[in-house]
Design a protein that fits this description.
72 residues; mainly alpha; 67% helix
């Protein structure tokens, strides 16, 4: 998987929260608590993207080296 695809779920979550924030009557405390969810999902996407980059690099370098970074 291309590492850029890992961030689509984070973009989707942010867009959903932006549409929620634009509705009247939403408590700002609720929206601020959603920041933790966005942070966790963003860090997870970043970690998986880094693993994809390492795996692609190791696959190009050596057949034994690629086993070190196998994601499965």
């Amino acid at each position: 998987m291309a590492y850029q695809n890992r961030f689509s779920s984070v973009d989707l979550l942010i867009n959903q929260l932006l549409s929620l924030a634009s509705q009247p009557g939403i408590d700002p405390l609720v929206l601020s608590s959603m920041a933790g969810i966005v942070a966790v999902e963003a860090v997870t996407a970043y970690e998986l993207a880094i693993k994809d980059i390492f795996e692609d690099f190791s696959n190009r370098k050596h057949k034994i080296f690629k086993r070190v970074f196998k994601i499965n």
